[in-house]
Specification:
- The protein has 187 residues and is α/β, with parallel strands linked by helices.
- The chain has a domain at 22-151: Rossmann fold (3-Layer(aba) Sandwich).
- The protein is built from three helices and ten strands, in the order ββαβαβββαββββ.
- The protein has a six-stranded mixed beta sheet, sandwiched between helices. Strands 1-2-10-9 form a four-stranded antiparallel beta sheet.
- Helix 1 crosses helix 2.
- The chain is globular.
- The structure holds inosinic acid and magnesium ion.
- Inosinic acid is lined by residues 46, 49, 74-75, 81, 104-112, 157-159, 163-164.
């Protein structure tokens, strides 16, 4: 496995391996399976970043479930959030009276999941929980808990396993962390 990656002059180091991700997902799914026994939750993935995590997670889920997707935009091609969240694709499912589990790749500022929480709560779900593979420590804008967290990480920029750098490298199997920032702009 590649330990170091150089992208546009930026240096990334291996941070969370595919084995570690796989093991952690099994643990999260075991908790979800126990918590949702006898119920039929809808997993709502937040595109694009969560699509790989969602697909691995639900294959460890043994309760009946459905899936749907939101698409949000907040980062553009930058490494730092613009602070503005827009809805690019709404849900197709009926949320009313259902058990909803929102699936995120990473919670950084918390703006995206706070935005999603508002939209979903308007539709009166039976319950609403959040699962995120990664959570950056010390989030200022989050006043509710993320119910299932894969890994709490420092506030570094990370890529791979669904997480992009200027839309690329989502296909990396492991997660890498920015170590040395170059001067090059993403292409
Ligand atoms: P938030 O609204 O600041 O919590 O960020 C939400 C979204 O920004 C995440 O769902 C990711 O898609 C993206 N994001 C946040 N941090 C990173 C990162 O370190 N690498 C890549 N994408 C990130
Ligand atoms: Mg995301």
């Amino acid at each position: 496995m590649t330990e170091l990656l150089r992208i546009n002059g930026d240096m990334f180091e291996l941070f969370i391996t595919e084995e570690q991700i796989r093991e952690r997902i099994k643990e999260l799914a075991a908790r979800i399976n126990a918590d949702y026994a006898g119920r039929v939750p809808i997993f709502i993935g937040v595109l694009n970043g969560s699509f790989i995590f969602l697909s691995d997670l639900i294959r460890e889920v043994t309760v009946d479930c459905e899936i749907d997707f939101f698409k949000l935009s907040s980062y553009g091609d930058a490494k730092i959030s613009s602070g503005q969240v827009t809805l690019l694709k709404d849900l197709n499912c009926q949320v009313f009276g259902r058990d909803i589990i929102v699936v995120e790749d990473i919670v950084d500022s918390g703006l995206s999941i706070a935005f999603i929480k508002k939209i979903i709560e308007k539709e009166n779900p039976k319950s609403l929980k959040f699962v995120s593979l990664l959570l950056k420590k010390g989030i200022p804008k989050l006043d509710f808990p993320v119910d299932y967290i894969g890994f709490e990480i420092p506030q570094d920029f990370v890529i791979g396993y669904g997480l992009d750098y200027a839309q690329k490298v989502r296909n990396l199997k492991s997660i890498y962390r920015l170590t040395v920032q170059g001067t090059a702009k993403p292409e």
